[in-house]
Amino acid sequence: MSGHLLEVEGLAKHYPVRKGLLIPKTIGTVKAVDGVSFHLDRGETLALVGESGCGKSTTARLVLKLIDPSQGSVRFEGVDITDMHGTPLRQLRRRMQIVFQDPFASLNPRMNVGDILAEPLIVHGIGDAASRQARVAELLGLVGLAPYHAARFPHEFSGGQRQRIGIARALAVEPRLVVCDEPVSALDVSIQAQVVNLLKDLQARLGLSYLFIAHDLAVVKHMADRVAVMYLGRIVEIAAKDALFAAPMHPYTRTLLAAIPRPDPHRKLARTVPGGDMPSPLNPPTGCHFHTRCSFATDACRSETPTLREVVPGHRVACHHAETLPPYSAAEGVHAATPVAARRLALYAERRAKAEAVAG
Known about the structure:
By secondary structure, this protein is α/β, with parallel strands linked by helices. Helix content is 33%, strand content 22%. The chain is globular.
C-alpha cells in the first residue's frame, strides 16, 4: 500500500464541443484538464494555483468523483477509485469532503444551520437524533460559532460566518481529505485571514489533508506545504512552498509571483508581464502551452511538449529551458518586507506566540 493519502496519475477531462440540434456533430474538444499528476500526503496541504480557467476546480471535482475523468487514475488511501460508483463511492465520501467557493450559494436557504450540519450525518446513517444534535453543537464550537446559531438560517450570517458553517459541514463526517475550492476568494481580506487561520488550526488538531485551490499567492504562501502551478489544464511546476517562492523555475510561475501586490507604494518594480491572454483550451498551442506568452520561448518550445521532470530533488518543472533560464531575482518576485512592515510582522508574531503560550 502506498504511503500517500491521494495519488493522481495522468488525469484528464475533455469536453466535446457539438454543433447542430437535430444531428449533433462534434467539432472540437475542450481539454479542461490534460494529463495532471500529483500526490498528497497525510496531514499535508497541496495548493493548486493558476489563472481562472486553467482547470483547478475541474481537477478538484475529478479527485472527488463529482465528475468522471476522460482518462487517468485517482487512488485514495491506496485504493483505485477511478471507476468506483454506487454504495462504495457513497462510503468513500465520508473520507473526502469539499468546502465550496461561494459560502452563500453552497448553503440551502430553506434549511437552518442545525439541519444543514445534521444532513451529512443522516445521509451516512451516523448516530441517532440526540447524538446528531450534540455533534452539531460540537461542530459549531469547532469553527468558532455558538450552539444557538443552529436555529438560524444562512441569510442571518456574515460571509465569514457562512464559510465557517461550510467548513463545519465538511468536517461533520470526519473526513481525511478536504478539498478547499477557493474558500476565501469571496471574502474580505480581514475575514480571509480568520478563515485561513481556522483551516490551519483545524488541520493541526484533526490531522486533515487539504487540496487547496486558490489564485491568491499570498494566501497560498501562508497555507500550503507544497504548490502545484497549473496552466491551461497542465501542471507546469510543483515544489515545496519555500523552494517555489524562492527560486521558481518556470517562466509562468515567475509571472505569477511578479503579480503579487507589494506593500510599499514608493518601491518601483520591474514586472514580468506575459503578452496577450490565456489561449483557448478548445485550441491550445502546440508544444509548450505557454510559448505564445513566454519571452524565453524557442523553436523547441513551439514543437515539443515538455514533460514534468525533476530538475532538483522535490522540484519538478515542465520547461525545456529550466536549467538555463536567468537566475531568479528578488526584483521579480516576493520582496523582503519594508522596515515598517517588518516591525509590524515581528510584533504580530510576538503577540501570537504569547497568546499561544497562555492558551497552552
